[in-house]
Design a protein that fits this description.
The structure holds two protein chains of two kinds. By secondary structure, chain A is of the alpha/beta class. Chain A has two domains: 194 residues, Rossmann fold, CATH 3.40.50.700; 123 residues, Cytochrome-c3 Hydrogenase, Chain A, domain 2 (Irregular), CATH 4.10.480.10. Chain A has eleven helices and 13 strands. The longest helix of chain A has 13 residues. By secondary structure, chain B is an alpha+beta fold. In chain B, a hairpin with an 8-residue loop joins strand 6 and strand 7. Chain B is globular. At the A-B interface, helix 1, helix 2, helix 3 and strand 5 of A face helix 1, helix 2, helix 4, helix 6 and helix 7 of B.
């Protein structure tokens, strides 16, 4: 299976993250899966005219294309011209190259939330008129349109995340190489379910604080960050706290809120990222699939039942009260 | 498609193995580049995206300007916000931020040398050179043994971020009041192990010698001795290639350098007559050849403007032209080492100015020094101390955050009104290095460096041009942002 990787209107962070693939490393992983790099902007030798020749060969059918990976959002501005991102050396908007190449690819993979939905590049006034390959925020459509299906039968595969975990990308590619990804393996935003059917909350080391609503009030506090600090881990679709990043990390392990970066429109949460919006003292965003009445009832009960240890540790930057060690019962 | 639009002109792009998208237009005469125009062809508009948001939201948005300078962008924003709050983080907070910044810079230097720069010497065009066999085995793009080893070493080093920052890129750990993740004694020994392992990689593969031996290089004679009889390693290999190809005379620019300084090096400038203080008030951006409105005057970043002019034909890039005291300046590892007073950097610049050779040596010198410093900083972490202090922000005010990314001076200038970001201006290292001409017609540092570069007959993307461009370690996504 061959792969062409283009960087559109993004930061390149998904590639930089992917280089951190471990056990095996990125190059071994791709080789082992029989994935041949036709061209990748960070890794490949070919530059300038050599690359343009390759792209033209794909468009006129002299070169087959199995997977087109696009990293970064599609810039449609100004006024729909795409001139905010001309592909260097070609005098042609990147959005036109991507649209044409997608028509020749067996699979189209949107790498990162920018390419999937528009992402941070589409934030605020969206000055560059950024969108995703097949979504514009939550709205299906984007560059390729709602009805787009690649030659292989799948719509754009949205490996969303800001950035993507290295292995979300490599595992998607390996599945494609082994014909192991069907439409039913994608969720309603076309994200691979192998990571999107999990919640960031799963495996979060702050779970005990969550259970008792023992909350962090400021950065470096150990407590749960849902109540005050904007954490969306109970709503965010990703396996960050079971898969882990750079060995043993995740956002909540790093001391800060999950901002739900795998979701469309995470760039506009409607409030400051690091503050939880509330109504009558209750967070507006509830944990996924939890009825509000139960959340309110359980929260007040849990707060009343919070052990002193959990309450005190929640407001500290290190464990100040260790869990009790229970002596073995004497026989 | 358009490599030879007309005789004497080459348009080179897409220019890869740089971060982001780059196009270079060359006017060629008599086998040499007569003049160059550098085009940053991507505009996203981060400065506008930040307007109207809560100031702390900048900590989420700005790292996403760039996936390779992510922590550097965070650091600039956190520094500016700390300045706005009038808060100084506790020593642990500063040390932790310095460690993360250093790790990112070290990882970037490693990536630049192994993945971006050296693979050009493994091109078929060099098949006749005596060093070609070993270079091809080690540095063939995406396949060479050294390329693979560097990717793995970088992955190992970046486990530091798994402990300190949750992840890389795009951590939110760096805050105006310090860091959001306190470290304990176990974290500290684990970090020390990670840094020690990275040191071993550098010492066995890159230098073939203790890092201290690299850091102590103090003269061109010492460098020549290393080249002729020093330990086998990629460093010596580069010195040999450089001597063979004359990289010490390739890509000379204005020989004016600036550094905002970091934990290792001071802030300052150098323009031929020793090291002098840098006055941030003398920085201004010129829009004459950028596709940006407001061309009639140069803008200090507190008074900056980012209004793209998509219909403009006079501008040839989205990159503005920053100038210090009206003049273009080069920034990067060589500038830091020079302004930091390192004798080897001083000797290199005295002998030949900023060139492909001195920029790469400056980076490899710095890589060794960063790794030594990281080991010292980890030992200095006080696991009983504080990591964070509250940093309440005023509703009104202006502040600046200056730091050093791997590729040079990075500055953020923000104004807050009514508790919201009213203006946010960013000047990134490659904005300096790859700036276009200004209203005086003065070309930017890369444009100047490319003048006179050899173009061989039939070359569509002259390999010497590629060496010059990549010697700056450009980051195009930061450049325009």
């Amino acid at each position: 299976m061959n792969m062409l990787w283009l960087q559109s209107g993004g930061c390149g962070g998904c590639t930089m993250s992917m280089l951190c693939a471990e056990a095996p490393d990125l190059i071994s992983t791709l080789e082992g899966a029989g994935i041949e790099l036709l061209w990748h902007p960070t890794l490949s030798e070919a530059t300038a005219g050599e690359v343009v020749d390759l792209l033209l060969a794909i468009l006129d059918g002299r070169q087959t294309l199995d997977v087109l990976c696009v990293e970064g959002s599609i810039l449609q501005g100004p006024n729909g011209t795409g001139r905010f991102h001309m592909m260097a050396g070609t005098g042609r908007p990147m959005m036109d190259w991507v649209r044409d190449l997608a028509g020749h690819a067996r699979h189209v993979v949107a790498v990162g939330t920018c390419a999937a939905f528009g992402g941070v590049t589409a934030a605020g006034a969206n000055p560059a008129d950024a969108c995703g390959l097949q979504y514009d925020g939550r709205q299906r459509g984007g560059l390729l349109g709602p009805d787009f299906v690649a030659r292989g039968g799948l719509p754009a595969i949205n490996v969303a995340g800001c950035p993507t975990h290295p292995n979300w990308v490599t595992e998607t590619l390996m599945l494609l190489a082994g014909d192991g990804l069907a439409a039913s393996d994608l969720d309603q935003y076309q994200r691979p379910r192998f990571y999107a059917d999990h919640l960031v909350h799963h495996g979060c080391p702050r779970n005990e604080y969550y259970e008792y609503k023992a909350s962090a009030h400021r950065p470096s506090d150990l407590g749960c960050m849902m109540e005050h600090m904007g954490c969306l881990g109970t709503q965010a679709h990703a396996d960050c706290n079971t898969r882990l990043w750079n060995g043993e990390g995740s956002c909540t392990r790093g001391g800060y809120a999950c901002i739900n970066c795998t979701a469309p429109e995470f760039e506009e949460p409607g409030h400051a990222y690091m503050e939880t919006p509330k109504f009558a003292g209750i967070p507006i965003g509830l944990p996924t699939d939890m009825p509000k009445a139960w959340f309110v009832a359980l929260s007040s009960l849990a707060k009343a039942a919070t052990p002193d240890r959990v309450r005190r540790n929640a407001a500290a930057d290190r464990i100040v009260v260790p869990p009790t060690v229970h002596e073995k019962r004497k026989r | 498609m358009s490599d030879t639009e007309k005789p004497g002109r080459l348009i080179v792009g897409p220019f890869n193995r740089v971060e982001g998208d780059l196009e270079v237009q060359l006017d060629v005469e008599g086998g040499r580049v007569r003049s160059a125009r550098v085009n940053s062809p991507l505009f996203r508009g981060f400065e506008r995206i930040l307007e109207g948001r809560a100031p702390l939201d900048a900590l989420v948005i700005v790292p996403r300007i760039c996936g390779i300078c992510s922590v550097s962008q965070s650091h600039a924003a956190a520094t500016a916000l700390a300045d706005l709050a009038g808060v100084t983080p506790p020593p642990n907070g500063t040390l932790a931020a310095d460690l993360m910044l250093a790790a990112e810079n070290a990882g970037d230097h490693l990536t630049h040398f192994h993945l971006f720069f050296m693979p050009d010497f493994a091109r078929a065009a060099y098949a006749g050179r005596p060093w070609f066999g070993v270079v091809a085995e080690r540095f063939k793009a995406a396949a060479g043994s050294a390329v693979r080893e560097a990717v793995e070493a970088r992955t190992g080093l970046f486990r530091l971020f798994g402990i300190m920052g949750g992840k890389w890129p795009h951590t939110l750990t760096l805050q105006p009041g310090g860091v959001a993740r306190a470290l304990d004694a176990r974290d500290k020994v684990r970090l020390a192990a990670i840094i020690e392992s990275f040191r071993r990689f550098l010492e066995t593969k890159v230098y073939g010698a203790p890092l201290e031996a690299v850091a102590e290089l103090s003269s061109l004679n010492a460098l020549e001795r290393w080249r002729d009889g020093g330990p086998a390693g990629h460093f010596r290999l580069f010195l040999e290639i450089s001597a063979d190809l004359g990289l010490d005379t390739l890509g000379r620019s204005w020989d004016r350098f600036l550094s905002y300084g970091n934990a290792l090096q001071p802030r300052g400038i150098w323009q031929g007559a020793g090291i002098a203080p840098l006055d941030p008030g003398a920085i201004a951006e010129d829009h004459s050849f950028a596709r940006m409105a407001d061309r009639e005057r140069r803008h200090h970043p507190f008074d900056g403007s980012t209004v793209p002019d998509g219909a403009d034909e006079a501008g040839y890039t989205w990159c503005k032209a920053p100038r210090l005291g009206g003049l273009p300046f080069e920034t990067g590892a060589l500038a830091r080492q020079l302004i930091g007073g390192h004798p080897l950097a001083a000797a290199l610049v005295a002998a030949g100015g900023g060139t492909v050779f001195s920029r790469v040596v400056g980076r490899l010198l710095e890589l060794a020094r960063i790794c030594i410093a990281m080991g010292q900083w980890v030992r200095a972490l006080d696991v009983k101390g504080d990591w964070y202090v509250d940093a309440p922000l005023p509703d009104e005010g202006a502040a600046m955050g200056l730091t050093e990314a791997a590729r040079g001076a990075l500055g953020h200038w923000l104004r807050v009104e009514g508790g919201r970001i009213a203006s946010y201006q960013i000047i990134a290292p490659t904005t300096w290095n790859f700036s276009p001409r200004d209203s005086d017609g003065v070309p930017g540092p890369l444009e100047k460096a490319l003048e006179g570069t050899a173009v061989e007959p039939g070359e569509r993307a002259p390999v010497a041009v590629q060496h010059v461009v990549r010697s700056f370690d450009p980051c195009m996504v930061c450049t325009v942002h």
